[in-house]
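Notebook entry, structure prediction.
Reason for the run: the old model in the group folder had no record of what sequence produced it. Starting over properly, with the input documented here first.
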Amino acid sequence: MTEETVPTRHVPPRAIGFWGGLSANVLNMIGIGPFVTIPLALSALAGPGVLLGWIAGAFLCLCDGLVWAELGSTIPESGGPYHYLREAYGRERMGRLFGFLYLWQTLLTAPLSIGSAAVGFAQYLGYLVPSLGDGGRILVAAGLCLANTAVLYRRVGEIQKLSMFITAIVVVACAWIVISGIAHFDVATASRFLHMRTDSTHGFWLGLGAVSLIAVYDYGGYNNVCMLGGEVKRPRRTIPLAVLTSIPLVAVLYLGLNISILGVLPWEQAAQSKAVVADFMQAIHGRIGGTLAVSLILLASWGSALVVLLGYSRVPYAAAADGQFFRVFAKLHPRGGFPTVSLVFVGATSALACFLSLERLIATLMVVQILFQYIAQCFAVVALRRRKVSAEAFRMPFYPLPIAISVIGWLYLVATSGLPSVVTAVVAVVVGTLIFLWQARRTRSWPFPST
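New structure, fully documented this time:
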């Protein structure tokens, strides 16, 4: 990495409006996540506490969404959190470390996040193509990442139209699934689930944390518009509106999806299913219904991988344009005005991430992001409020209560996530800090004196 500055910083055009920003969030949120994690949630906590975990996750995301909304409105730049952390903690002091650590964790988590959507896509494709073995699913997932890179290699305005179109289809499909469940809801089946109880209070709180962590992973994406802040029209209004609209919208869909499934499938069957929505729709509409549901899920997971790649591809670009990463990553397409090298790099590493398993990825991905970024962003709001900022910027209601709830919630999720995930995240933080200090000493920048 280099401290070399870029002579001229070309800025991508602001082409994303509210509906484009909302679709970027919603399509990211309604990816493969809930379709593969509902069985994991049912296995983690017995009885109605599962629904409480989904509600708790949505509430935590709403509080954190207020943090993102204020930061995105105050500093509407592409690469979002990289700029938030640097500005809040001092661009030439601690902000350098926080900005670097965010970039470092993004290089780790972006390929894993994108790859998880692609792996989920390949797993559901196995329902339609039973002969697709493990090797075939890996190749399909990696191929999807590379294909999405090719699709995104164009002007962002064109991608916005595609994103909005896919989002509309996905929302309609989810509504169809929920309505089908309500129409065939069996009280006796749901009652068996509602009467299940955990063995102990200790087991309940651990299970609640596990379900909430899964829920937060599935709700993840409400901040995607912040990654594209420099390409958003009227960002001080559009970014908060897109963030805070997407969370309740998707929360209602997810709760409806859970309730619908538990009113049709016995919860034991749902907990063991590898393609729970396909089994659910097949139970109602037969094989044709299951096939159609899987087809729509494949569309959702493809779209999710597409928009996540779009958002994350802007982070190395933003760092390079700020002189904190290899300058080649700041290169923009001469006609389209989109980052080229950054996009190709993130797309290629995402294809490599598809060779990893999905299960451990979720917990590790979330804990790394919490320790590297989410908690630091909560305090970033406090730091930025002490300075003079634009009067047009969004200000969260009930400040600082949402921040306190977010910090407590994140710490609770980390504490209940399991030792392997916490150790992995802590090691990643330590390694990233050591790399930063080595780089700072080599360039004689903060915290080392220049003379």
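Summary: Confidence is low (pLDDT under 50) at residues 1-9.
The old model has been moved to the deprecated folder.
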